[in-house]
Amino acid sequence: MKIKELNRTSHVAWSAPEVDTVLLAAGTSAQQVDLSFNTKAELEIFDPNTRDNEPLGKVETSERFHCLAWGSFGVSNGNSTKGIIAGGLDNGAICLWDPNRIINGDSALIFESKKHVGPVRSVQFNPFQAHGLASGGRNCDIFVWNVEKGEPRQLLPKPTQAEVNSIAWNKHCSYILGSCGGDGVTYIWDLRASKTIFRLNEASNERYRASCMEWNPESYMKLVTAFEDPRFSAVQLWDLRSCHTPVYTLMSHQKGVLSLAWCPKDSDLLMVSSIDCRTVVWNPNTSVHC
């Protein structure tokens, strides 16, 4: 049953689980235009539980978005009841907004930094440390931020000159981070040593761009990586205990894969969306799609 439909070309992020209300943030997608060539850039907050399609609040932003994340920083200590929203912009900026202030119509931008050169492709909050944020961009850089201090605490060494398209924190270990990008390789980082500990790829993968990755919510040793090249529109399941080749390669799309979403409550459900306008739900543990 459809609950709500919003006519937007946006990157979206659900509110953090610690937030008292289920909300949806939508940031205007970069490198997309409508028929009127509108260049407006906005960050909006919606309530999916109402029939009203108007946002609860919105702010104009300096640039459009490549990625969006909603974290729980500030919820536990009472500084904010709705956490914090991070966005990666087209001009290389990392910005943080207070969703409470957006809803109240107040000035909401609390931090902006342009450490990245070129678009920021991926941002994600550390699930164990609310103040921890990782970001990856077109210039091969991966930063780890302390949002409480408003500064990067770590710049990871570049293993390649290829752009970073996706980063993902391990769901069970606070210092393990994954990244993938233009060289088709998935890198697993140990932040304690600021180095890669695994390099996942088949020989053929290096010809294709990796678009996104996700960790298994129940097993800290398993992850999936997807590719956006129409010649190899695949999703590969990897197990770090035996990482010479993928466990499975899932093929169901005619064009490249755009995004992955692994259900945090049921590891048998992996949603895959593609440029071919299809969304497929797989059981990645059996390689069968629903």
Summarize the structure in words:
It is a single chain. The chain has 290 residues and is mostly beta strands. The protein has 2 domains: 10-118 and 129-155, Methylamine Dehydrogenase, Chain H; 159-290, Methylamine Dehydrogenase, Chain H. Helices cover 2% and strands 43% of the residues. The chain contains 1 helix and 24 strands. The protein has one helix at 99-104, and strands spanning 10-14, 24-28, 42-46, 57-60, 65-71, 84-89, 94-97, 109-113, 120-125, 132-137, 142-146, 151-155, 164-169, 176-181, 186-190, 195-200, 210-215, 222-227, 234-239, 248-251, 257-262, 270-274, 279-283, 288-289. The strands form 6 sheets. The chain has a 4-stranded antiparallel sheet with strand order 1-2-3-4. β6 and β7 form a beta hairpin. It is globular, with a radius of gyration of 18 Å. The relative contact order is 0.08. The model has no long low-confidence stretch (mean pLDDT 90).
Defining key terms:
290 residues; mainly beta; Methylamine Dehydrogenase, Chain H; 2 domains; 4-stranded antiparallel β-sheet; 1 helix; 2% helix
